[in-house]
Amino acid sequence: MLLEGPGKVVVYRARDLFLGRDVAIRTLVDPSLDPDECARLLAEAQAVARLHHPNIASVFDAGMYQGVPFVVMEWVEGVAITHTRRPPSMQPWPSPVRSVAPLSTPTLRG
Fold first, then answer.
1. Neighbouring C-alpha atoms within 13 Å toward the C-beta of 18
2. Structural domain of residue 41, as residue ranges?
């Protein structure tokens, strides 16, 4: 089942039949477009595999299959982060010019 797209990476929900658990499989939409993207996906998998934290999905496996990179990760129930709206505290900072302009206007008028 396709879960994420249409960026460079897609995520599929799959079933690990041997271990009897759901997993997330990340792979590239089109690995032939940019070989650097293949290397980046696998390097990311290696970096995440070194981390152990309850808020980070575990990496179970990674590699290449028929020239396509893949990362098998822990399946986490919930809504994809791309489908959520940032809370106000995480909104991007406004442009410094827009922030300062209202304060400087009375001063410039004299």
1. 0
2. 2-109
